[in-house]
Each structure stands twice: as structure tokens, then as C-alpha cells.
Amino acid sequence: MHDTTLIPVSPLYPLMKPDCLLTRTLFLFALLALVATAAANPNVVQVFVHPGSGTICVDSTCQVAVGSLSGYSSSQFANVAGGRDHTIKVYDTDGYQDYTDQFYMDYNGDDVTLQVYLDPLTTETAAPATTSPGTGTVRVYVSPGLGQVCIDNRECDTSTGAPSSTWNVDFDDVTAGTPHTITVTADGYQTATTQITVLPDQVNEADVTLQPLSTAAETESTTPAPQTTRAGLDAVPIIGALGVCCVIFLFRKNGN
């Protein structure tokens, strides 16, 4: 028996034969064409951004867009890997929102063209600002220095001083631009009421002088009372005297 050993034959074995020069030449040309085709298709991504400003990135490779806000920009990225998804980002465009999306680069190395349209930033309409009227201080001087002072019947302060002196009280943070009512009460005195309109960021002063209750009573007592006419009273004795004289005259006449 003969010992037969199988020797694997390479697919390129026919090209290695000395008599296959033509075949080897054709194979070399095919290989060069393949390399040229690969070089001519470097997997290019062309990105157009509207408007043309900001920074453009394909995955981690970034470029600053060369363009204007009134037009568009064009950026090119080469040698992008085929057969998978990639991320495109556009940011730092004044007045426009950032953009993020994905695209797919196939194995054939066909160029990819992307059109990116940026959305303007939304401007929220601000609510009209309400102008505060501000506040001020109300300072009330009371004479004599006693009693209780209230403003708008909400905030009050009571004197602890001597009745013979004058005292004052401050009310802070009082709304400006509107009238406020000041009321002062004290035992033995009439209630005093006055109004004051507050100016903002100022001390607004009011003077109140209390009137004793006795003054009102004296005023009433000095009022003259209506008097009875004396003409009617003087006529009574005259008529009586005339009557007596008539009686005496008649008596004497009858006696004669």
C-alpha cells in the first residue's frame, strides 16, 4: 500500500503557477481596484445646519460651524465607521435650542447628508410687573399725653406718660397712597378722629389735641334759655286794679 497524505491546497495556488502570469496580473489589478474603491469612499458625513452657527459634533469629533444666523453652514466628517449608528449634535447657537439626533452609516461607505434645522428658543411673555405703592411711617402727636391711639382700628398703642405732657407714637410699614384713619380715645376726653394720606419712605406726622368732656357740658349750660314775654304778665295787675275801682265806684253810687 501507498501512504497517501492529503495536502491542503490554497485558493491562490493556481496563481502561483509559473504558467499563470495572466491570471496573476488580473488578480493584481482587481486588488488595486478594490483598494482604490475603498480610498474613494472614506465614509463621509456632510452636515448642513440652518441657521449656520454653533458647534457640530459627530460622536466625539466636533467642528465649529462656519456660517451665519441668516444663512446656513456646511461641515464634513470623514472616515465615519460603517455598519452602526452615530450621534449628531449641534449646540451653542445663539437664540436657538440645542439639537441631538442619530443616523446610520452603512457598510458600503456611501456618503450621508444631514440637514439640521434648529428651533428658536421660546421666549415666555413675562407678566406685567405690579408696582407696589410702598410704605411709610405715621407719627401721631397727642396732647395731653394720655389715652390710646389706633390707626384704621387695627393697630393701637397706649400712652404710659403723664397727662400733662405730649406723647407720640409711630406706626411703621403703613401702606402709602391711601388715606388712613387715626382715632384717639382717653378717659374724660372726647374721642378725636383724623385722616392722613401716607407718602412712601417718609415720616408722616399728625397732631391731635384732646378736648375735655366738661368743655362740652359748659358750652351747653351757657346757652341762654328762652324767656317768657313780660308784656302778658304786666297786664294782669292792671286789669285787677280796674276791676276794684269799678266795684268801689258802684258801691259809693248806691250809697248816695
* Spatial arrangement of strands, main beta sheet: 3-2-5-6
First-to-last CA distance: 225 Å
Number of helices: 4
Which sheet architecture does the biggest sheet show?
A: 4 strands, antiparallel
Structural class: alpha+beta
Overall pLDDT metric: 78
Instruction: Give the strand tally.
Output: 14
What value does the Rg take, in angstroms?
59 Å
What general form does the structure show?
A: rod-shaped
CATH architecture of the domain at 135-212: Sandwich
CATH superfamily of the domain at 135-212: Carboxypeptidase-like, regulatory domain
Strand content: 25-35%
Q: Low-confidence parts lasting 5 or more residues at pLDDT below 50?
A: none
| CATH top level class name of the domain at 135-212 | Mainly Beta
Give the SSE order as H and E letters: HHEEEEEEEEEEEEEEHH
Helical fraction: 10-25%
CATH fold call of the domain at 135-212: Immunoglobulin-like
Give an overview in words.
The protein has 256 residues and is of the alpha+beta class. Among the domains are: 73 residues, Sandwich (Immunoglobulin-like), CATH 2.60.40; 78 residues, Sandwich (Immunoglobulin-like). The protein is built from 4 helices and 14 strands. It has a 4-stranded antiparallel beta sheet with strand order 3-2-5-6, with no helix packed on it. A hairpin with a 2-residue loop joins β2 and β3. The longest helix has 26 residues. It is rod-shaped. The model has no long low-confidence stretch (mean pLDDT 78).
Question: What does this entry show, briefly?
Answer:
With 256 residues, the protein is α+β, with helices and mostly antiparallel strands. 23% of the residues lie in helices and 34% in strands.
